[in-house]
Design a protein that fits this description.
The complex is a heterodimer. Chain A is of the alpha+beta class. The radius of gyration of chain A is 15 Å and the shape is globular. In chain A, the strands form two sheets. In chain A, strands 3-4-5-6 form a four-stranded antiparallel sheet, with no helix packed on it. A two-stranded antiparallel sheet of chain A has the order 1-2. The longest helix of chain A is centred in the middle third of the chain and has 9 residues. In chain A, a hairpin with a 7-residue loop joins strand 4 and strand 5. Chain A has one domain: 2-Layer Sandwich (Folate-binding fold), CATH 3.30.2270.10. Chain A is built from two helices and six strands. Chain B folds into two domains: 229 residues, FAD/NAD(P)-binding domain (3-Layer(bba) Sandwich), CATH 3.50.50.60; 149 residues, 2-Layer Sandwich (D-Amino Acid Oxidase, Chain A, domain 2). Chain B is 28% helix and 27% strand. In chain B, strands 1, 2, 8, 9, 10, 11, 17 and 18 form an eight-stranded mixed sheet that branches. In chain B, helix 2 packs across helix 10. The chains are: A alpha+beta, B alpha/beta.
């Protein structure tokens, strides 16, 4: 079991979370060239090693998180909120 | 290489089976080949075999980083079927099934292909309608399919849960009577031996660490055993395609995910068919010739190259198994393991040239690689030999994502974990 330290709820089993894939993907402007969209929608770096990825705490606070995890060892280096603007909410909770 | 026959079995039995020769030689790599196939799994070995037999290209090397049978070829649940619905997939997998039928004779190696029949379960009237539609599409392509009602199911598979309280009530199923299982180790050993007999060099413990380039063209590979030059280089490396692609500067529509498989202790004959369960979860089971119940379910649902599975999937698969076949609750699990899958953005494979001259790609088999082994090898050999895809491989091009021509059997979009 992976254990993900949710900034809001604390450390939980990964079975409470839903995996959202590569967090380095950002969608381009609607007007961007087709190649940029193909890159964002279909192509993945798929690294063997450190990977920034999205997880949603779907059976908990439902926040989207950015998890840095090694795809070979499954070690988790960091867990942060996907939306930095929500940080004050979490800081209040953890104090 | 001496042929295997009843006579050779008797002769070796008389001498106590002490002096069987190696099944295939263990050569050192030559400095160059016409074609190098990277990856000594079923697909790579089948590619080399069909290159030599169908297309007359015998100066071929298969490079395997471990030993033959150490990768996904030995990690699958051995199911062979062709009950696909989408144009392209149906024809491709049916061609594969045709090759499976004669494979043991063709390779002079018993791959234990056992077309015992596969049944997709239907757990609601709607699911049964869906099964009928799938069966009709299969029959339109000349693939045998038989719709089963609840009584048929009780006759054929008496150990499913038919009680009124069943979690998944059985409304019927769709049988492909020509589907079944094969012994996966024998498939790679058989292809390796048959390819070697035609002059192919099978080089084990030879990991590719980079590509040799001349003027933008790939002209060979760097390996742990030195440089090897090649006229053409084909990649057939299952879960590690993205890593090889990165060495060549390719950005691919693939994520690597874990798929677990399970085998129980051997028990007496219990299940005569391969059973597939989808839609409300994912589960498939068959009984091996040794008596072990071989089964599996979903991916672990996160990117991984770890080749080891996680416990939530063990729980989910066990729960589904016991829900469908309550008697499995008394059976002890013997082993479980995981393989690294190339999950593509539409759940279908890729057999194509790459944007890099001299480099060819066979990848993205998701869950479906084992059954595809013969057709995959045949089509990849065709591509390497002729420089253009066979009509069966043409729909599975690398640029289908750009063209919007996805072959998405599950209909879930570009989310690899869901295929």
């Amino acid at each position: 079991m992976l254990r993900i330290k949710c900034p809001f709820c604390g450390e939980r089993d990964h079975s409470e979370f839903s995996y959202g894939g590569d967090a380095n993907i950002t969608y381009p402007d609607l007007a961007a060239p087709m190649e940029a969209w193909i890159e964002a929608v279909y192509r993945r770096a798929n690294p063997k090693g450190p990977h920034r990825e999205r997880w949603q705490h779907i059976d908990g606070c439902r926040l989207w998180l950015i998890v840095e995890r090694d795809t070979l060892t499954h070690e988790i280096a960091s867990v942060t909120l996907a939306k930095a603007a929500l940080a004050p909410l979490v800081d209040g909770q953890s104090s | 290489m001496p042929r295997y026959s009843a006579l050779s079995l008797i002769n070796h039995a008389i001498t106590g089976n002490r002096d069987w020769p190696r099944a295939w030689p263990n050569p050192d790599p030559k400095p160059s080949y016409d074609v190098i196939v990277v990856g000594g799994g079923g697909h790579g070995l089948a590619t080399a075999y069909y290159l030599a037999r169908e297309f007359g290209i015998r100066n071929v090397a298969v490079l395997e980083k471990g030993y033959i049978g150490s990768g996904n070829a030995g990690r699958n649940t051995t199911i062979v079927r062709s009950n696909y619905m989408l144009p392209g997939a149906t024809e491709f997998y049916d061609f594969s099934l045709q090759l499976w039928n004669s494979l043991s004779h063709e390779l002079n190696y018993n791959v234990m292909f056992s077309p015992r029949g596969q049944i997709l379960l239907a757990h609601s009237p709607d699911a049964l309608d869906g099964a009928a539609r799938r069966g009709n599409i299969m029959r339109r392509h000349g693939i045998a399919a038989r719709l089963l009602n609840r009584q048929d199911m009780q006759d054929l598979v008496p150990h499913l849960d038919y009680r009124p309280t069943a979690r998944f009530p059985i409304w019927g199923g769709l049988m492909q009577p020509t589907a079944g299982t094969a012994r996966h180790d024998a498939v790679v050993w058989g292809y390796a031996r048959a390819a070697a007999a035609l002059g192919v060099d099978i080089i084990q413990n030879c990991e590719v660490t980079g590509f040799l380039r001349e003027g933008g063209r790939i002209v060979g590979v760097e390996t742990g055993r030195g440089q090897i030059r090649a006229g053409k280089t084909g990649i057939a490396v299952a879960g590690h395609t993205s890593r090889l692609g990165e060495m060549a500067g390719l950005s691919l529509p693939i994520e690597s995910h874990l798929l677990q498989a399970f085998v129980s202790e051997p028990i007496k004959p219990l299940l005569d068919y391969v059973i597939g369960f989808g839609g409300h979860g994912h589960f498939y089971i068959s009984q091996s010739d040794k008596g072990g119940m071989v089964f599996g379910g979903d991916l672990d649902m996160y990117n991984s190259y770890a080749q080891r599975g996680n416990l939530p999937v063990v729980r989910d698969v066990a729960a589904l198994g016991v829900s469908l076949m309550p008697c499995l609750g008394r059976v002890r699990l013997l082993r479980h393991w995981a393989g690294v899958m190339d999950m593509t953005m539409d759940g279908s494979h890729i057999i194509d040239r790459t944007p890099v001259d001299g480099l060819y790609l066979n990848a993205g088999w998701c869950y479906g690689g084992f059954k595809a082994t013969p057709a995959s090898g045949w089509c990849f050999a065709h591509l390497l030999a002729r420089d253009e895809p066979d009509k069966l491989a043409a729909p599975f091009s690398l640029d289908r994502f750009r063209r919007g021509a996805m072959i998405d059997e599950a209909g879930v979009g570009p989310i690899p974990k869901l295929h």
